Every structure is written in structure tokens, then in C-alpha cells.
Amino acid sequence: MDTINEKAELNDFISEAIADDLKTGRYDHVHTRFPPEPNGWLHIGHAKAITVDFTMAQKFGGQCNLRFDDTNPEKEDMSYVEAIKRDIKWLGFDWEDREYYASDYYEYLYELAVKLIKKGKAYVDDLSEEEIRVYRGTAVADKNNITYTPPGKDSPYRNRSVEENLDLFARMRSGEFPDGSKTLRAKIDMAHPNLVMRDPVMYRIRRMPHYRVGDAWCIYPMYDFQHPLSDAKEGITHSLCSLEYEIHRPLYEWFIRECEVFPSRQIEFARLNITRTVLSKRWLLQLVQEKRVAGWDDPRMPTLAGLRRRGYTPEAIRDFMSRIGIAKTDSMVDIALLEHCLREDLNKRANRVMAVLKPLKLIIENWPEGKVEELDAINNPEDPSAGSRKVHFTRELWIEQDDFQEVPPPKYFRLFPGNSVRLRYGYIVTCTGFDKDPRTGEITAVRCTYDPETRGGNAQDNRKVKGTIHWVSVQHAIPIEVRLYDYLFAVERPMEVPPGGSFLDNLNPNSLEVIETAYGEPCLAKTKAEDKFQFERIGYFVRDPDTAGTKPVFNKTVGLRDTWAKIEKKASG
């Protein structure tokens, strides 16, 4: 898979296909749907599907349904339904009154199955799941290493009479047979080159309460059977889905044709793949169940809830989707592009504040004891309407430990003995010495003097210094907890594992660092969950909804360094 390196508009082969369908009269309107299975939370790959489904409907003046394809009672739950609806609305899309459930169509689907039996196109089979797999056949390689699939083998129950099949299917529904003892299969072609078309299972017996219909049913339709017929039930003109369903399209069309229902059209597009993450719901569920993460909304997860808690904005995600566009073949998108879209959005909307993550005391020896001065600080240089705020300047300040070196390395422009720096929004200070713990050798405080003529870089300030550092007043700062999140995986393509390996082997052991002794400006005490800030010189942060402790918690969203911008500049240069 190639890496996408350039912006692409959300206007491509799908738009052209829809426009052609309208022009030729195949359809006189456009109706799409987003059909999630309520067995997990939505991730950013679903965000691409959501964007495609809703955007295409909007583009052509049509409608988009939200339909839950809930035909697997073993894995589905109403909590997933609520999470999915919440995330779609947060992303900026609304289905209005067009909310549907495949479970509402069970009787309709059952009647269509009966119709296929009467047409001689379906039969009840007694083979086990394993026997069906063996009879269907598997792909092999010939002497030239060319893969092909030999014809399968007909089930011994394939030629049951219509009457017997109708009777058995009705008895399946009434609960007369044990789980797994019988299935209803479509009668298509056991020699078909496409394994999907080799008499696929339509119904299986499962005595499992359904989260919406309870114990009303003990047989449940398979996805490949219900999906096209649910589309037809809703009058969906264009069933837009990811590329892995391309091989299922002949079956999709077969069920629509043989059931003689509305002729929905399936069109496939490449799914989203991003470096440094996995977008398999099964793997994400495994991370949650094995407690490799704190839950579906862990800020390291690529779920929409996780990204939201990390500080991502729906605008940034939609911008990302517009840049990658829609393709017919799979590709790998550099996560740096997603982060670039986020930085561009947060740069415009996030107010600046000062926070010190690893504090070291700075003592201004010639500042009068007890004196407090208020300095003007700009809230957002990209947004003049954001105004300014007052920050307190006092004798003792917190600075970052990394902003002082006893013996500085080359080209180090921050504090060291004899060097001068500017304190952001404040004065130029010159390091005069430092205090050190005699037992541990740890620097406990840095001492300096300030030049009263250099406040805020006024017009009379002729002193030039190369370094500017941030700070907070010891007297006024509030304690905060900061959670520094890194990529969940240590490699670019965590889904690629050697034989016998697991994607879990690629987890990053340093994906989270919790700092419980950080300090921030007093204004951070009044923030609420999802308030976003740029901690000056550090990165973008968001207030976490966690209120278990006494201190406000801030999650690192993304750093200030924009690697994608450098990639773009290099590519254009």
C-alpha cells in the first residue's frame, strides 16, 4: 500500500457513478445509509464511511439513513447503539427521523426467505458449520503457484423438496431444533469461482436473547442475507461500503434479484488505513477486554470517543477526510496528516496558557518580597477577538527543569550560569547561581536577577536575548495532573506481524506518562471537560472529564512540531 501525500477532494468515482445513475434514469433520487453493527464503538475508519454516506446524500439533495444491522445477538448491546449515535452527532451529521434497525425487519426477512424456498432457491441443511466449510472447498495453488478453488461438493440435503424445506424452516423458527443443528442456505452454485456464492448460509439457530426483541426469535439472518434486503426495504439507491465487500457484491445482487425487491446498487471504496494504529473492531475490542487500554474512550484509541477525549475536533477529522478523498484501492495514510489537520484547527481555536509540567523553582533575588505584578498575556494571536488576560508575576516562579542546565550543551539558549533569557510576557532575567541538594546532586532552585527596564519587550528595551521560556507564579499557580499520550503502537504498521506473532507485540510500552506534580495558570481551575488549550512551548491539551481526583486533569492532544508540514514543504520544494 502506498502512502497518501497530497490533498484530495471528496469528489471522485462515487460521485461520477451516482451522477451517471441520475442521468440515465436508473434512479430519480439519491438515498444512502450508514449501517453500523452495534457490537463496538465507532473508530476513525467508520468516520470515513459516515462522511462518504452522508456527504454523498447531501451533495445530490438526497437522504441518508442510520440503520443498525443488529442480527448477531451474541455481541450486540444497546450501549453500543447509544455510543454510535452520540459519536455520529458529535462528528457533525444527523439522520433526523431516519433511524432504523434490521431487527425491525425480521418478519419481512423471514417472508423473503420463504419466498426463496418456494422458488427452489433455498434449502434447509443439516451439515455442521465445519462440514459446510469442508464441502464449500478451499483455495489451492497449482504447479505454477497460481491459486484457484476447485469445485465444492453439494450437501446431501441440497435437493430436499420445497414442501420439506418449508416445513423444516417453520420448525426451525418455532424452536424445535437445537442450536447449530440446521441452517437455511441459498441454492446457487457449489462450483462458483467465488466462494461467497457457494450456497451461503442465510439463517442459523441461536437461542440467545436479542437486546431489542428479546426471545421472540431463535433463528437469526446472516449479514449477507439481511443487508441487501434491508437496503431494499428502505429504498436505498446507493449502498456505499468498503472494499472488502466487493467480493460479496454478486451475492448482494443475487438476493435482490431473486427476492424481486427494490434494486439497490452497491459501490465499494477503499477503507481507511492509518499508520501507528489498527482499525479492526475485533482487535480494538481485544485491547479493551484485555485491559491494554482504559476503555473504548481511552485517548490512545482510534475510536471517535477516544479521539474526542484526546482533544480532537470534528472539524479536524472532517478536514482530514476531505484531504484523503475516496479511492478504489487500499492505501496507507500517514498519521502525521491527521495531526496536521488537528494542529491547523486548534491553532485557530485554542487559547494559549502557560503550564509547567516538571517544575523547578526560579528565585528572582532583586524582586521585592511580597510584590505581585500583573502582566498582559495574549489569549490567541490567531484570533484577535479572544483578547488578553492578566498573569501574576512574583519573586518565585516555576519553570521547566529542562529550561536550566548547569553545564549547557552547544546551542543551548535557555538558562545557565551567566546567561540571560526572557520570561514570556515579562522581563529579561540573568542567571546568577543555583541551589543543589548536597546528597543527591539535584538542582533544587535557580537564582537570577531581573532587569526592570525590559518588561514585555517594550520599545525602550535594547537588550537582545536568544531564549524565551514560560513560567507560572509559585504563589498563584494551581496544581494540575497532566497525561502525556503517545502512539499506542511502537511501529508504523502494527497489523503486520510475523507468523505466530500478535499485533499486541507491537504495543508501545511508553504510550502514557502521568505527571501528577504539574502547575498551571489559575484560569485552568475554571475549565470544563473538552476545553482546549495550547500550553505554550509544549503542545495542545484538553481538559479530561475525569473528576476522580482533586486536581483538574489535562490530556496532551498533540505536540507543536508539525512533521506533515515539513513533508509537504519538501515535496513542493
UniProtKB/TrEMBL annotation:
GO terms for biological process: glutaminyl-tRNA aminoacylation; glutamyl-tRNA aminoacylation. One of its GO terms (molecular function) is ATP binding. NCBIfam families: glnS (TIGR00440), PRK14703.1 (NF011291). Belongs to the class-I aminoacyl-tRNA synthetase family. A motif ('KMSKS' region) lies at residues 278-282. This is Glutamine--tRNA ligase. Monomer. One of its GO terms (cellular component) is cytosol. PANTHER family: GLUTAMATE--TRNA LIGASE, GLUTAMINE-TRNA LIGASE. L-glutamine binds at D69, Y223. It catalyses: tRNA(Gln) + L-glutamine + ATP = L-glutaminyl-tRNA(Gln) + AMP + diphosphate. It is an enzyme of class 6 (ligase).
